[in-house]
Design a protein that fits this description.
With 505 residues, the protein is an alpha/beta fold. Helix content is 48%, strand content 16%. The chain folds into 4 domains: 4-164, Rossmann fold (3-Layer(aba) Sandwich); 167-259, Helicase, Ruva Protein, domain 3 (Orthogonal Bundle), CATH 1.10.8.60; 273-338; 345-500, Histidine kinase-like ATPase, C-terminal domain (Heat Shock Protein 90, 2-Layer Sandwich), CATH 3.30.565. It is built from 19 helices and 16 strands. The strands form 5 sheets. It has a 5-stranded parallel beta sheet with strand order 2-3-6-1-7, with helices on both faces.
Length: 505
């Protein structure tokens, strides 16, 4: 037999809920219990009944979800006759009262408000009935849309109890698990198992769509299957019938992540534990949000009421986007507070430049070849100057490359103590099919002398070369007219200090 007094003092109820339950138990005012599926609404109703002055009287449960249109009369009449219309006091628990149709809502309002029960032309006065109702939906929104009687709503919620979802009670899961396992051991004659620290962390990390009912199911099943006195991660996955279950999928993903070897953090920049926590938190919340949003879009087509369908989708979407904004804010906080070591900037700039000129490269069907040195060190050249230099070189090369030609990039770091008195340098090679020979067209167009034509053609290259030399670098050209190939080499000194950067938010 369930000890409801012990439940009232257990971690199953939050302290605010427990206070409201105690208040509700000592009077006959109507109580409305709201919360997601599985949060324990019926359990709270029974605690209210069995811990108060009405515990010796009948408790009738009426499931409004299975009632047909105008079927409330059929279900209530035998119960009212059993208690002789209130000569014997009784508690009526209306489970999912929001599912009642309009006609039944009016009948219930007469009973709650005036104590009248109408059966055809027959009118009965009913006394000594206490109503406890529950709803998984927000009845206030149902009232706003005209789907639920406003008068009935306020009559039923003289006292209102809202049960929080289990995902908002991560700190309570440990005490709740201990209590549920002890009670299950008494009632189901199973061993009184404990929960290991690793399992507790898993339970606290899961989002529990089934709330308290799902937690109890997982704990009892694992206690039965466990070979030892403590539930382990292996025990949680032992039931083949859980395939496709969201909790089982969560465990398998977690197991995969745990099995991955730790990433090398040889760059010397440590990531605080709180950062790892934030990253894990963000991704564990964002993934379900994507699923919820997708499911909501599919579910919307099933609503017949177009106005309600659009309103439902808008509200859920807005809520998800608000949460997503918060999570993005957390990620930005991490990015702006914890730097990473800067590497391969040259490679990133090359890729950016090639993408910028992608249309020209595609039009001429130019093939691209790349050979990059891994973890190429940073140079002393500023990113914007490097971007300008490489952009100018690619723009210089493309016009001379014939259709179906090629362009390639090679990068490497060099130890060269003799060059520029630097221990190390970085070299970028750009080689392309063809060579620069625009003089014929300029002759016909401007009729300039050869010397002046060469200066105009090489002007931008000369400016780039001057910029490279100002940065203690060097640029060389090799033109092979017979092979129709041009090779340009650019070398810069390596930055001696470790360069760090912050991710963009």
């Amino acid at each position: 037999m369930t000890d409801y007094q012990a439940l009232l003092q257990s971690p199953i109820l939050t302290p605010p809920v427990a206070r409201l339950v105690r208040k509700s138990a000592v009077n006959s005012a109507p109580v409305l219990i709201q919360g997601e599926q599985g949060t324990g609404k019926e359990l709270v109703a029974k605690i209210i009944h069995h811990t108060g002055d009405w515990k010796s009287y009948p408790f009738f449960r009426i499931d409004c979800r299975i009632l047909g249109e105008q079927a409330l009369l059929t279900h209530l009449c035998p119960l009212l006759e059993e208690i002789r219309f209130g000569i014997t006091p009784a508690t009526f628990f209306l489970n999912e009262v929001g599912d009642l149709g309009p006609a039944d809502q009016l009948k219930l309002l007469d009973l709650v408000e005036d104590g009248l029960w109408l059966k055809g032309v027959e009118k009965k006065v009913v006394k000594n009935i206490r109503f406890i109702s529950s709803s998984s939906e927000d009845l206030k929104e149902r009232v706003a849309h005209g789907d639920f009687s406003e008068d009935l709503y306020f009559r039923l919620k003289t006292l209102s109890i809202v049960l929080p979802p289990l995902r908002d009670r991560a700190r309570d899961i440990g005490p709740m698990a201990e209590y549920l396992l002890k009670e299950s051991a008494k009632q189901l004659k199973i061993k009184n198992a404990a929960v290991s620290h690793d399992v507790l962390r898993l339970l606290e990390s899961y989002w529990w769509p089934g709330n308290l009912k799902e937690l109890e199911h997982v704990l009892v099943r694992s206690a039965v299957l466990s070979e030892g006195e403590t539930i382990t991660g292996k025990d949680l996955l032992m039931d083949a019938g859980m395939e496709g279950n969201s909790f089982c999928s969560f465990l398998k993903k977690t197991e995969t992540r745990t099995a991955e070897p730790p990433k090398d953090n040889s760059n010397g920049l440590s990531i605080p534990d709180t950062t790892l926590f934030f990253v894990e938190l963000v991704h564990r919340i964002k993934n379900p949000l994507v699923s919820i949003k997708t499911f909501t879009q599919l579910l919307g087509d099933k609503f017949n009421d177009e106005e309600f369908r659009s309103y439902f989708y808008r509200i859920v979407t807005e809520d998800i986007e608000k949460i997503d904004d918060v999570l993005n804010g957390l990620l930005n906080y991490i990015k702006i507070n914890y730097p990473i070591e800067k590497k391969n900037t040259i490679h990133d700039v090359i890729e950016e430049v090639l993408k910028k000129h992608g249309a020209q490269i595609e039009d001429k069907k130019i093939k691209i070849f790349k050979k990059y040195e891994k973890d190429l060190p940073e140079t002393t050249v500023h990113d914007e100057q490097l971007r300008y230099i490489l952009t100018s070189l690619v723009r210089y090369a493309i016009p001379s490359i014939p259709p179906d030609g090629s362009i390639g990039f090679l990068t490497k770091s060099l130890d060269d103590a003799k060059w520029n008195q630097e221990e190390r340098s970085v070299e970028i090679w750009m080689v392309f099919t063809g060579y620069k020979k625009p003089f014929d067209s300029l002759d016909a167009l401007f009729e300039m002398p050869a010397v002046q034509k060469k200066e105009l053609t090489d002007l931008e290259i000369r400016l780039i070369q001057e910029m490279i030399e100002r940065n203690r670098g060097r640029m060389t050209f090799e033109v092979h007219e017979k092979k129709l190939r041009t090779l340009i080499s650019v070398r810069f000194p390596v930055e001696r200090r470790k360069v760090i950067t912050y991710q963009s938010t």
